[in-house]
Design a protein that fits this description.
Low-confidence stretches: none
Number of helices: 15
Strand order of the largest sheet: 1-2-9-6-5-3-4
Helix content: 40-55%
Strand content: 15-25%
Radius of gyration: 20 Å
Order of helices and strands: EEHEHEHEHEHEEEHHHHHHHHHEEH
Bound molecules: nicotinamide-adenine-dinucleotide, zinc ion
Structural class: alpha/beta
Oligomer: single chain
Number of strands: 11
Largest sheet: 7 strands, mixed
Amino acid sequence: VHVVHVATEPRYEVRIGPGLLADVDRATSEYSRRAVLSDEHVAALYRSKLGLAGDVPSLAVPPGEDSKSFGALERVLDFMAECGLDRRSCLIALGGGVVGDLGGLAAALYMRGIALVSLPTTLLAQVDASVGGKNAINLERGKNLAGTFHQPALVLADTDTLATLSDEEYRSGLGEVVKSALIEGEAALAFLERNADAIVARDRERLAEIVAVCVRTKATIVARDPREHGERKSLNLGHTFAHAIEHAAGYGTIPHGVAVGVGLLLALSLSRELGVSKDATLAERVRDLFLRLGMPASLDALRHSSRAPLTADEIVSGTWLDKKGSAGKPRFVLIEAPGKLALDVEASVAVLGRCLAEG
Ligand SMILES: NC(=O)c1ccc[n+]([C@@H]2O[C@H](COP(=O)([O-])OP(=O)(O)OC[C@H]3O[C@@H](n4cnc5c(N)ncnc54)[C@H](O)[C@@H]3O)[C@@H](O)[C@H]2O)c1
Ligand SMILES: [Zn+2]
């Protein structure tokens, strides 16, 4: 088992490895009461694997992004109250990023904040969503517009659960894995290159190592900048383009991490275009890696696989939607070299157009 310490306030541990669901009972025995939140799909697969002693109530919401809503949040809060949870109780969130976000927000709000024990079951949730304390639900006007920061008390990432993910959900996690490696540095990128076949085969040991590398990368950044005033923005590498792609295709059409993968390639191309990156081979390496991982390795490949037109104009205007709170122009996270990023870089429409034309 890999253990990563996240030095936020409060600090917590992320444990990563096979078979960890069986540890949940022991790991949560200190709490006065426990309740489990999941989605229907994950509950059917894994609720019985938790081996929780005594009568631990469960609620399963419908799977999918629609459960990040006020209606679902109210159901979860009512459920917590019905279970008689108090300030010394914990909510156990078993599922992907949707359950993590919904459960995280409910745990933050219930009695002004109780413990959240997170059991992420998708690759995306294990490498990204379960670490860092962000949670949110969606509003009519946009995704993740209503949320808080609430660090979990403990995260147990059982890598055995990844075996049942659909290929599409699995690939969605891989986009974030490659992002994480580019942020971390050359060693992490080379590790993915060496292990690409094992990743495709979902080799249990390699996967646990890879998830641990990603979690460590995110944990380091989040501990230095818990509220995203500076460095934490680096985690948005590829995301301004990804959000524009998701918006152009219609949200839900293209898995987030797949859009992030192509977003990374576009960020690499913009980095070259603006002279930020001096490394001409990096984009080629990342493209090769995506090909080996069975991911779309260019905007054109994504157009083909998604059957969305994804015109350059749509994507350029889409980058204006993703201003991350700052007024004016979109700002990009660019990359000089693996492990070396440039934050808050602006780009003109003309330059963006050139990058997108290269695909
Ligand atoms: N809070 C954060 O920091 C953060 C970071 C990244 C993403 N997110 C959020 O996470 C969400 C996406 O997360 P996701 O991709 O995990 O989506 P998800 O939670 O919707 O899960 C995807 C699908 O996989 C199913 N599933 C989950 N685990 C499974 C398993 N082990 N085997 C088989 N099927 C399984 C689910 O039932 C669901 O149908 C988005 O809402 C996004 O905004 C949050
Ligand atoms: Zn992402």
